[in-house]
Design a protein that fits this description.
This protein has 6 helices and 17 strands. Helix content is about 20%, strand content about 30%. The chain has one domain: Sandwich (Jelly Rolls), CATH 2.60.120. The strands form 5 sheets. Strands 3-12-9-16-7-5-4 form a 7-stranded antiparallel sheet. Strands 8-13-10-11 form a 4-stranded antiparallel sheet. The protein is globular and about 50 Å long. It is α+β, with helices and mostly antiparallel strands.
């Protein structure tokens, strides 16, 4: 049985300590080969075989939301995740004590993003709708996640809206994390609340090495990156969160009928 300890104001499982990225503010954990190649293949088959209406197409990527999108009040309608998103990922979360201290003691929401070469996402924060812990499984290809310190209100608005007029848009990220296929990245604590994250819109990631990638010594296999760069391929992420506000469908219908 794993022991537990407090890291900042958030509790995590003691068994995760060996995966902590020491060069980051509290707290991030990186686990290479969190799932097997067979697991990865099953997930890919499920994700790519869902009906097309399940995909939401954005200007820079497409995504799926399970079991559903949040309402305007950042509330999730109570519904279980499908089995293929729970096994084996959530069962392994339980073994490691991930989400053990969240309100529902397990993730209840999964966002699946597909990033083709050249696609990315602007620096952003996950916000207050979720318990401050994010667990992301990467499949199909590697990618670099950029971490930015939060800025003043004007700059934060620019990152949110994409309007960088008059803003220092060329600022470099404070930290960079390399996410391999089949890996798990967990962010929580101050890293969740005080920093933003994004993925650069590029066809290749470069300047990769122990001096630039904060989890380099935890990467399972650095061979594909031994020349300091790699050409991007299509990468898919599965981001697990615990939505704080959950409503039974019946309660939601009563609220709508009162309007």
């Amino acid at each position: 049985m794993s022991t537990h300890y407090k890291e900042g104001s958030r509790a995590v499982a003691g068994s995760l300590e060996q995966y902590c990225i020491k060069s980051l503010p509290e707290a991030a954990y990186y686990i290479p080969d969190f799932i097997t190649r067979d697991d990865e293949e099953r997930l890919l088959n499920k994700i790519t075989s869902v009906p097309l209406p399940r995909w939401t197409h954005l200007s820079r990527r497409r995504l799926q939301t399970w079991p559903s999108a949040l309402t305007n009040s950042n509330t999730l309608l109570d519904s279980p995740l499908p089995d293929w998103l729970r096994s084996p990922v959530v069962s392994r979360f339980t073994e490691l004590g991930i989400f053990f201290d969240s309100p529902h003691r397990a993730p209840n929401h999964v966002l699946i993003n597909e990033y083709q070469p050249g696609q990315g996402i602007m620096p952003h924060e996950d916000g207050a709708a979720y318990y401050p812990m994010v667990a992301t499984v990467s499949i199909a290809a590697p990618i670099v996640l950029d971490i930015y310190e939060k800025r003043n209100d004007e700059e934060r608005k620019a990152f949110t809206t994409g309007d960088f007029s008059g803003i220092h848009a060329n600022d470099k990220p404070r930290y960079r994390i390399l996410q391999e296929p089949r890996s798990l990245l967990i962010t929580t604590g101050k890293l969740y609340t005080d920093y933003m994250h994004g993925i650069a819109e590029t066809t290749s990631d470069s300047d990769l090495g122990p001096d630039t990638i904060c989890n380099w010594d935890q990467v399972g296999d650095t061979t594909p990156f031994e020349h300091g760069s790699y050409e991007r391929q299509t990468r898919i992420s599965l981001t697990y969160r615990d939505v704080l506000r959950v409503s039974k469908l019946g309660n939601t219908m009563k609220f709508l009928n009162k309007r």
